Each structure stands twice: as structure tokens, then as C-alpha cells.
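Please, structure for the following, as C-alpha cells.
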Amino acid sequence: MQSSPTSRDVALAAGVSQSTVSYVLSGKRFVAPDTRARVRAAMDELGYRPHASARALKSSQSRILGLLVPYHERTDTPGQYRYIVSLAAACRRRGYDLLVISGEEGVEGMRRLVGSALCDGILVMDVLDDDARVDAAQDLHLPSVFIGLSHNAEAVVATDTDFEAIGAGCAQRIHDAGHRRALVVNPASEHVTPMGFIRRFDRALESRAEELGLALDSIAVPRGFMPTHAALCDYLARPDHADAFIVAPSTSIDDVINALLTEGLGPGSEVSVIGAGGSGDSSHTNVDYACYDSDVPRVADTAVGLLVDQLEGALPLAGREPERIAPVFHEGVSLRSLTATHDTNVTSFTR
């Protein structure tokens, strides 16, 4: 009597490993569509029928999504917390739980998480402009979404706030307030400056400023009021200093405003100040300042939705334009003489 075909026979007929056949049956790992089709065709040709227990594995997803979120001493903890809370809520709405993996393991952390099979897919935060995890996600054929855009973001599925719109908008609003020179206050952090969103903001800001004829000076300040105050005092000692200030992402606009007030410069009267990000619920200045901010709940919902679409087979793992989410803008009173602006990719909010 001829014995029934086994998964080993299917693997030989399809030209794949036996573990690949198991992954096709269980759904535990991503298998390329053409490979999956070859395995299915070999199963049909051989008349292979998996055991009921193997078929059951197909529906044994963990219903857990992993979140890789590096944590270091310069982490913007309140900002990070906003994303984690919104991502957890977005997961729950879709019937998933969120497993947070902190640390700075990079690619090895991603490989460890995949190897543990704890999660059905992975969300990746703190994305660098040149991020090795992009190549790792491709190599692992991993259902994942990057919350942040690297220079090669099209190689994976990614979404983020439209920091290009923020950079261009900051230049435009300062120009429309009547200024022709501005100081850009950047973060002095080896962890932050390589981030993709910083590079995208910088490029858009400089490009729009050049179009407008807006001259830009720049300084980098460490976190905290005292070093921010010291750096601004050094700059203000220059006879040709600007009277408009653009506070870059991941730089405390509260510290900048408080430092200016200490020097007798009132935002909205003597000087103009605009932020590329707000301070959420942790503001520590009395000035109602003008600022852009990320629409965090929408970014989180978009990221989780894209990942679930991959898991359900409705979306490929790569090869799509990143989804940029429009920022929100709070007008405040820190711009000296704000007139009509030209932002088309922002919404407004009230702090």
C-alpha cells in the first residue's frame, strides 16, 4: 500500500525546506506569495492533507503586536508615552494586545523578537534616517510598520507625521510675521540628530527659507533650562542676532521661551517664537505659544491599521509610498505680527 505523502515530500516537490512548509500551514512566519503558491500547488499535486492539529495552528496567532521602542537617558519620555498609549488603544480596537520591548538592541532585538514567535507583527519607533532595521525587516520577511521614515522608507511599510510640512510651515509663518532672519534652536543629542524626522524637518525648513529669502542661523542646545539659557545668551550677545526663533523638533520650546523671558524678550511682542513640536500635557511656561504638533492618535491608528492589513494579507510588506499624516497647528500668541499663512497640509488645535 502506498504511504500517504508527508510534509517532507511536499518540501521536495516545491523546492523548499520542510520548515517553510510548516510556516505555510501555521501562518507563524511570513512566506513570499510565490513560494506559498508553490507549496500549495505541491500539496494539491501530491494529495497531501495535514493533520487537524497542524491545520489548527493556522488560527493560533498570538493576537499580540510588538512595539520596538528604544529607551535611553535622553529619551523624550512624555512624548514616547503619548505614542505608547495611543498605539495600545489602536491595538485594542482591532482585538490585539501590545507588547512593549524597550532597549537599544537594534537589529538583534528585532531578530530576537521574531525568533520568540511572541508577536504576529512588529511596530518600530525611533527610526533613524539610515536605519539598519529596514534591511533586517526585509531579510526577515517580517510583517512590520515603521513609525518614522528612513531615507529608504519605501523598502518597508511606514507612516509618520509630515515633518516636511512642519519645516516649511515654520519658515512660512516666521516670514509672514515680517521677519527676514531667524534662529533655529536644535537639539544637541547624539541620539536625536540622526533621526529621520529631524533630517526631513531640516531639509524642508531650509528649502522653504531659501525660497522666501529668510536667513537662518542655528545653535544646538542640550536638554534643560540652564544650558538652553546659556546658549541663547551667547547668541543674543551677537550684534546681528535674529528676533525670530524656530524651535526644532525634540527641543523644549518651554525652555526657549522661559530663557527669552529671563532676558526681557517677550514672545509676541519683542520677538517671535514658533515650535516644531509642543510639550503635550507637560508645559512649564505661561506663554501660549504657536506650535505644530503630531496628531498622535491618528499616526498610531494608521500604523496599527497598516500592520493588521499585512497580517490579513490585504497589504504587501514593502513597495508602497509612506503615509504622511498632517500635523496640527496651534496659533497661540508668540508670533509678533502673524498675517495670512499658506499651510495646506495642517489642521488646527487648541492647547
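Residues 163-294+329-348 form a domain with the Rossmann fold fold (CATH 3.40.50.2300). Residues 77-93 form the longest helix (17 residues).
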